[in-house]
Design brief:
Blueprint (H helix, E strand, L loop, with lengths): L2 E9 L3 H12 L5 E3 L13 E2 L9 E2 H14 L3 E3 L3 E5 L6 E5 L4 E9 L3 E3 L15 E2 L2 H4 L7 E5 L3 H10 L5 E5 L9 H9 L3 E4 L2 E8 L5 E8 L5 E5 L2 E4 L3 E3 L30 E3 L11 H23 L2 H7 L1
Parallel strand pairs: 1-2, 1-8, 2-5, 8-19, 10-17, 11-12, 11-17, 12-13
Antiparallel strand pairs: 3-4, 6-7, 7-8, 9-18, 14-15, 15-16
Helix pairs in contact: 1-2, 1-6, 4-5, 6-7
The structure holds flavin-adenine dinucleotide and NADP nicotinamide-adenine-dinucleotide phosphate.
C-alpha cells in the first residue's frame, strides 16, 4: 500500500480521462490516471470507429484507446491499474481517494471521468453477437447497416432517437418495445410515428439473438408479453437502447446528480459544486455520449483544473473570489 500525491487525479481511462491527462500533463500537473475495471473505456468493446476526427479510414476502438493512452503517457501521465473504491471530498482540496489496491491518492484536483455503461438485456446471443449485428449505439454503428433491415429495442428517448437516426441509413427500421406505449417525449414519438421507414412491435421482449451461418446476427426470437407467444424477426442489425447507467455509485451523497445518476455540473462547464472537482464525459452527459464529446470535456476539465490550481497559489481570499 502506497500513498500517491498529485496535482490532478483523473478517475477513469476513457476518451475523457485520457484527454484530461494529455492536457494536464502538458501543463506540468503530473496527473495520475486511475484506469478502473475497463482500461480504455467503452470504445474497447467496439470494433470499427469511423467518426473520431483525424482518421480517414475506419479505426479499431481498442487501438484508438491504446493510442490515446500512449499519448497521455508520452507527455508525462502516470497510469495506475487500480479502481477507486472511495473518495473523500469533504473539507475541500486536497482530496483523498482510496483504490481497490489499498493505495491512497491525495490530489489537489479531481477529474471524474468514470463514464457510463449501456444497459444490456442479458439474453442469449447478445454479448456473443456484439459487433456482429448487435450494438448499443446507432450513431456509432448505424452506418454499417446502410440499406439493411434493423431493429431497436426500447421505448425511451434513446430508443426513439436511435430509430430516427437509423432512418438515415435504412428504410426498414423496427422499434420493439415491451409495453404498448412509449416512455419517450411526445415530440420524439410524433416524429417516430410519422416516419414511413419505422414500424413498431408492441408488447414484445427479445428472448434470444440468433446468428446465421456466417456467424453474424440473423434473427431475433421475440416473446409477446401479453400472450406469451413467440415469433421471429429477421434483421441484420439490432440496437439495444434500454438506457445507460452512469458510473456514479462512488459519488452518491457526495456530489449532486440527476435522477438517472448523471453528475450535475455548472452548465457549459465541467465544474461540480465542489471547487476543484470536475466531471467530464459520459458520467455527466446523457445527451451526446460520443468519444469526441467526452474527449472535449476532458480537455475542458483539465484546463479548468489548471486555472483552479493557479487560484490556490493565490491568497485564500483571492482563490475564493476566483471560484
Ligand atoms: P468511458 O469510455 O465510459 O470510460 C470510463 C472509464 O472510467 C473506464 O476506463 C472505466 O474503467 C473507468 N472507471 C469507472 N469507474 C471507475 C472507478 N471506480 N475507478 C477508476 N476508474 C473507473 N462513440 C463514438 O464517438 N464513436 C463510436 O464509434 C462509438 N462506438 C461505441 C460502441 C459501443 C459498443 C459503445 C458502448 C459506445 C460507443 N461510443 C462511441 C460511445 C463512446 O464509447 C463513449 O461516449 C465514450 O467512451 C465516453 O467516454 P468517457 O471517457 O466519458 O467514459
Ligand atoms: P429510459 O428513459 O430509462 O428508457 C429505457 C427504455 O428501455 C424504457 O422504455 C424501458 O421500458 C426499456 N427497458 C428497460 N429495460 C428493459 C428491458 N430489460 N427489456 C426491454 N425494455 C427495457 O432510458 P433512455 O431512453 O436511455 O433515457 C435515459 C435518460 O436520458 C432519460 O432521462 C431521457 O430523458 C434522457 N435522454 C434524453 C434525450 C433527449 O433529451 N433528447 C435523449 C436520450 C436520453 P419501460 O418504458 O417499459 O420501462
Amino acid at each position: 500500500m502506497a500513498t500517491h500525491r498529485t496535482k490532478m487525479l483523473i478517475i477513469g481511462s476513457g476518451p475523457a480521462g485520457y484527454s484530461a491527462a494529455i492536457y494536464a500533463a502538458r501543463a506540468m500537473l503530473e496527473p495520475i490516471v486511475v484506469q478502473g475495471l475497463q482500461p480504455g473505456g467503452q470504445l474497447t468493446i467496439t470494433t470499427d470507429v469511423e467518426n473520431y476526427p483525424g482518421y480517414r479510414d475506419v479505426v479499431q476502438g481498442p487501438w484508438l484507446m491504446e493510442e490515446m493512452k500512449a499519448q497521455a503517457e508520452h507527455v508525462g501521465t502516470r497510469m495506475m491499474y487500480d479502481i477507486i473504491t472511495s473518495v473523500d471530498l469533504e473539507g475541500g482540496s486536497p482530496f483523498r481517494a482510496v483504490g481497490d489496491s489499498g493505495d491512497e491518492y491525495i490530489a489537489d484536483t479531481i477529474v471524474i471521468a468514470t463514464g457510463a455503461q449501456a444497459k444490456w438485456l442479458g439474453v442469449p446471443g447478445e454479448q456473443e453477437l456484439g459487433g456482429k449485428g448487435v450494438s448499443a449505439c446507432a450513431t456509432c454503428d448505424g452506418f454499417f447497416y446502410r440499406g439493411r433491415k434493423v431493429a431497436v429495442i426500447g421505448g425511451g428517448n434513446t430508443a426513439v432517437e436511435e430509430a430516427l437516426y437509423l432512418t438515415n441509413h435504412s428504410d426498414d427500421v423496427t422499434l420493439i418495445h415491451r409495453r404498448d406505449e412509449l416512455r419517450a417525449e411526445k415530440i420524439l414519438q410524433d416524429r417516430l410515428f410519422k416516419s414511413p421507414k419505422i414500424s413498431t412491435l408492441w408488447n414484445k421482449t427479445v428472448e434470444n439473438f440468433v446468428a446465421g451461418e456466417d456467424g453474424s446476427l440473423h434473427h431475433l426470437v421475440l416473446r409477446d408479453t401479453q400472450t406469451g407467444e413467440t415469433s421471429t424477426l429477421e434483421v441484420d442489425g439490432a440496437f439495444v437502447a434500454i438506457g445507460h447507467a452512469p458510473a456514479t455509485e462512488l459519488f452518491k451523497g457526495k456530489l449532486a446528480m440527476d435522477d438517472a445518476g448523471y453528475l450535475d455540473v455548472e452548465p457549459g462547464t465541467p465544474k461540480t459544486a465542489i471547487p476543484g472537482v470536475f466531471a467530464a464525459g459520459d458520467v455527466t452527459d446523457h445527451v451526446y455520449r460520443q468519444a469526441v464529446t467526452a474527449a472535449g470535456m476532458g480537455c475542458m476539465a483539465a484546463l479548468d483544473g489548471e486555472r483552479y490550481l493557479a487560484t490556490l497559489e493565490d491568497t485564500p481570499a483571492e482563490a475564493e473570489a476566483a471560484e
